[in-house]
Amino acid sequence: MFRNIVAQPNFSVYLMKKKEVTIYDLAKELNYSPSTISRALNNHKSIGKKTIKKIQKTAEEFNYRPNALAASLRNNTSRTIGITIPKINHPFQASLITGIEKTARKAGYNVIITQSDDKYKNEVDNVKALYDARVGGLIVSLGMETRDTSHFDQYVKQNIPIVFVDRVPENFNSYRVIIDNHAAGYRATKHLIEQGCKRIAHFAGAQHVNVYNLRKKGYVDALIDSGLQVDEELIMDMKTLSFEEGKKATEKLLKLDNPPDGIFSAIDTAAVSAILYAKEKGVKIPEELAIIGFNDDPISRIVEPTLSTVSHPAQKMGEISTKRILEHSTRKLDAAVSEITMLDTEIIIRNSSKRK
Amino acid sequence: MFRNIVAQPNFSVYLMKKKEVTIYDLAKELNYSPSTISRALNNHKSIGKKTIKKIQKTAEEFNYRPNALAASLRNNTSRTIGITIPKINHPFQASLITGIEKTARKAGYNVIITQSDDKYKNEVDNVKALYDARVGGLIVSLGMETRDTSHFDQYVKQNIPIVFVDRVPENFNSYRVIIDNHAAGYRATKHLIEQGCKRIAHFAGAQHVNVYNLRKKGYVDALIDSGLQVDEELIMDMKTLSFEEGKKATEKLLKLDNPPDGIFSAIDTAAVSAILYAKEKGVKIPEELAIIGFNDDPISRIVEPTLSTVSHPAQKMGEISTKRILEHSTRKLDAAVSEITMLDTEIIIRNSSKRK
DNA sequence: ATAATAAATGCAATCGATTGTTAGCTCAAA
DNA sequence: TTTGAGCTAACAATCGATTGCATTTATTAT
């Protein structure tokens, strides 16, 4: 499987960690008290300008690096934000993290990341581990299995802000950063109708998850408002909206006596899968079957025909979530605040649905 | 842009953090000393069985959660791994992180993530910030701009293990987890030759970055070994191997008097871009132009024709990197060890290069 | 020159968990 | 009854930075 090459040049002495430089060392060196060193390094106003200069210069010479653990312990607040999301290597979530990390770092915060893999137990464990690390705030996108949210209670008790993003709980006072899934689902469906679709199928996700539930509601409402029938036969329930599930669903749909002429998929992956399978079966897209997805994943631009979709401002959501946490300490709110930020989505019309 | 809805139910009392439960509280409650509580919670052998039971039960009842900051401070080692990579939202790197996080969490470690965005300054800042957080180990994939590695010296001095992964420095004693880029480049090129290509172009990345340098060397060596000419005109130097760069390069190549009949791209993105552009220009793939990429990104399976590529065991690399760090404390090595783990790659032959 | 004010610095406790050393206790064998 | 093995558990120092309060020094006004 792989080769290993080991070389070990020198022993013993190096095994001991060298004593690190602390403010006490600097204090001794410069004949100041540790308090003065500490204040000088933090540019405290009660310390003289030249003193600050001198101390900071020496600190640099000595390669002094503050111990954030000690500071956090003393202050009882750490400049760390915890994240719990289902999967890091999904385009939407990776972008979400990117936005969080960038914003946090600018503010001098570190980000600890955990992934639940959509398992409830993992989520609970992660939330505990982040608490143990005494994060200053928590950003969460719920796992598929999560129905109970009591694992977050301890944060509220300690007034540690929680921001739920995208996949959020129904009943939990906290910050929320979401998109208008209902409106997005409505518009995506409406778009297909405008392109002349009369029988539109829907690839639906797990219905206890807010985003999938609302996208479906939007779909249903758009049909009703347009005077089209809602046909349960055309609503394909899926667990993960994966490539495989998308294929199976498309297969089923195409076999119907009265197959659909449009598909709104709650996730791009399944939509792309539908395109590929339908093409394989000789169905013309978009003429015979118009398709629209959700997320604007990279594959949606590459598939042929390119996939129409709903874009989800992932990085922006991460950025706003982080800002909520950074602001929290400034504002006089407790963690049980219920503040919802709803971002706009954008329908991106590409070739998989453009008939005119 | 977005709507905000704020509701604030209750004030004052909740603003103060409630005092957290500590081992001292448990000690008082149970009439034990804090030392006993601490040892009991850690299942120390010198504490009686029933005592441990009783203490752990009470801890649970009181919702006690250990303060990892305090423990780390005292022990001078934190169960935290720091990561510095260029970009989180790139498929390869997202998978790398996934592998790291999973392995670390199984061992009870947290993962702090930072991204350099391929900027040297960011990388330096991040490496410092992670040091300040007193991580127990560091996993790094170097940014494009990095040529000097002195920002890692402090880790070596403190015997904090560093694992470089994928994009690694030339001269720095540490752990390294890499793939055999030379062999991969060689085999990819050889594959095109076997398919009958006589004039093979190469999309090359920045040559001071080990992975791109070696892929190119592999390409050149394969040509030479097969008695083909190395034509500098066919080697396209690119900064980021992006979609746009791929397109421009393909444009240039197709305009040559004697255009290539094969392309080996050091990254999938540029390869996909080449496919799309060449198709648009009426060039038949793979008949007139065979293409192979590198990374096995999701888009490589979706593009038409599907892209042949070299798969990079990203999660596995993350897993192994993490294990190196976890093992480090166990083994009697200092951080200046030089241990290289080289993983195999796999050539995946899809339609963009299969002529026979 | 002197009192009064402002500026600069130091003292010592604190955050929560860990651990080497010491001390108390139980039980059994002699 | 005595003694020591074997358990249990406590004391107190430690990790490094922070900060309210006290104290010293410098500066200004009168």
Automatic annotation (TrEMBL), chains A, B:
Q: Which Pfam families match?
A: LacI, Peripla_BP_3
Keyword annotations for this protein?
A: DNA-binding, Transcription, Transcription regulation
Tell me the ranges covered by the HTH lacI-type domain, including all copies: 21-75
Looking up SMART domains in the UniProt record yields: HTH_LACI (SM00354)
Q: Which GO terms describe its molecular function?
A: DNA-binding transcription factor activity; transcription cis-regulatory region binding
Where is the HTH cro/C1-type domain positioned along the sequence?
14-69
Q: Which InterPro entries match?
A: Cro/C1-type_HTH, HTH_LacI, LacI/GalR-like_sensor, Lambda_DNA-bd_dom_sf, Peripla_BP_I
Query: What is the name of the protein in this document?
Result: Transcriptional regulator, LacI family
Record the organism.
Salegentibacter agarivorans
